[in-house]
Design brief:
Length: 83
């Protein structure tokens, strides 16, 4: 049985490692008590096989089996290239 893979959209903030990018994913939610919109962010390391991403690109990453200690995501597609 195939389960759906989790995908996230974020911005590339580092491409200095070989075949690895660091993606900053932001999310917004309403605080349950104070009803204020809160912004949270998290960094994910993703596998970029062809080193095609640059800093500032908007990318879609997909969950995968662990590639290394920190890398559990792979680059699915580049949504928007940086200028």
């Amino acid at each position: 049985m195939i389960k759906n893979k989790v995908t996230k959209t974020g911005k590339v903030i580092s491409d200095k490692m070989d075949k690895t990018i660091v993606v900053l994913v932001e999310r917004q939610y309403k605080h349950p008590l104070y009803k204020k919109i809160v912004r949270k962010h998290k960094k994910f390391k993703a596998h970029d096989e062809n080193n095609e991403c640059n800093i500032g690109d908007i990318v879609l990453i997909m969950e995968s089996k662990p590639i290394s200690k920190d890398k559990k995501w792979i680059l699915s597609k580049i949504i928007e290239k940086s200028k």
